[in-house]
Amino acid sequence: MDQVSWSHAGNGKLLSEGKTLGKMGLLFEKIEDETVEKQVQKLLDSKKMNEAANAPVAPMKELITYDDFAKLDLRVVTILEAEPMPKSKKLLKLKVDIGLGHRTVLSGVADHFAPEFLVGKQVTMLINLAPRKMMGTDSEGMILMAEDKDGKLKLLQPHEGTANGSTIS
To answer: Which of 10, 96, 115, 144 is deepest in the core (most CB within 10 A)?
Structure first.
């Protein structure tokens, strides 16, 4: 029999007695544990990205008037110093140049940024927020940030360097 098809499956007379078969190769390659681990990690990373992409966006807050918005004094500032706040795991103490002088701002970003990463960065700040005493220190404004769907904070920065105190409107 030279031509064999699926219809011959199960026929015990396909090979004559004493016929030698050619050398057979491997049907499957061995898959190393490292390869499996890489693929599993790739799937887990993909799952995490899909979950973040499909996470619900926070609902919009109540509408405000233009007059409410106009009260906000948003400026570009430079972070001059950053250090962990004693006795706090989340707060960083920031010294910023607002173009009108220096201010101290306490920001709950220690889980997201190392202090040395922030030094020298230009960011967006609400400078006319009433001071708030936190852990015995007055925080004199608020650094604005965006929060991703996965909870990661992003600095709001000008796309190129600008003068400290530049207004944002």
So the answer is: 96
SS3 60: coil
How far is 68 from 140, CA to CA, in rounded Å? 20
CB count within 10 Å of CB 96 equals 28
Angle at 68 between CA 62 and CA 73, to 5 degrees: 120
Distance, CA of 22 to CA of 137 (rounded, Å): 84
Residue type present at position 57? V
- Sign, CA torsion 39/40/45/46: positive
pLDDT in tens, 22-41: 888 888 888 999 999 999 99
Residue 125 to residue 145: CA distance in whole angstroms: 9
**pTM, rounded to two decimals:** 0.66
Reference 152, options 122, 113, 116, 117; nearest CA is: 113
